[in-house]
Amino acid sequence: MTPSEDYGLWTSVAVSSLIFIIFAFSFSRPRTKQDWRSLGAFSAFVVALFTEMYGFPLTLYLLSGWLGSRYRGVDLLSHDAGHLWATLLGWKGDPHLNAFHILSNVLIIVGLVFIARSWKVLHRAQRQGVLATTGPYAYVRHPQYLGFIVVMSGFLLQWPTLLTMAMFPMLVWRYVRLAYREEMEVRSKYAREYEIYAAATPGFLPGLLRNRNHRKFALRRSLIAGVKENQQGDSMNDEESLREVT
Question: Are 108 and 170 in contact (CB under 8 A)?
């Protein structure tokens, strides 16, 4: 069996891979060796995905014997057959219009938007020297990593392959590990404020509704800010009093 003319599109493989790798690089901004390894693992996932989507359908080739005995009359090395969930479920018609494909597009778009919005909030907070707690950070503590996981989930729903399905849990584990390593750094910097934020905001799984405890955190944070302002005001008043005395 040889792949159809739907494959061998190596320019599409390169361009599609570069788009997502550059996007991931621009928003993850790797600094440490572990950061670069995580980016490298995501890049490998993307390259493996688009290689089978446009280059060579390795998964379909390896499973062709098993699939051929169960799905007779289906061109297993066609591009449409690469939408494996539709093939396994026996769905007819254009696979780009079925529920799984539409849902996968939604997940990919939502994940990318979540990553972009998270970076915008984080960048602004870093410039101001404050803890990022607004936007996506109001719902989860690690929205950027969650965004990458959602994007990969969308790809697996759209175009599952043996290699990417094997890589997915390893990438999730790496992102979770990286997130909690960074959390230790932020916790040491913001101390009590981060403790309150972490107690009110889940790490990766947001609630269906905005976490009620986050409102308590916002109130406590405003109170803390008010106390600091009062303390600064008192110190300034003390300095002015000392000047008057002297």
Answer: no
- Asked whether 41 and 178 are in contact (CB, 8 A), the reply is no
pTM recorded for the entire structure: 0.80
Do 183 and 196 form a contact (C-beta atoms < 8 A)?
no
Q: Which two tokens stand for residue 29?
A: 């901004």
Strands (E), 50-193: none
Amino acid (1-letter code) at residue 55: G
Per the structure block, which two tokens stand in for 218? 């916002």
Q: What is the pLDDT of residues 141-161, one digit of tens each?
A: 999 999 999 999 999 999 999
3-state DSSP call for residue 5?
Answer: coil
In order of 41, 165, 172, the CA distances from 110 in angstroms are 21, 21, 18
- Other beta carbons less than 10 A from residue 197's beta carbon: 24
> In this structure, what are the phi and psi dihedrals at residue 32, rounded to the nearest 5 degrees?
-95, 170
pLDDT given at position 231? 46
158 close to 111: Cβ distance less than 8 angstroms: no
pLDDT of residue 211: 47
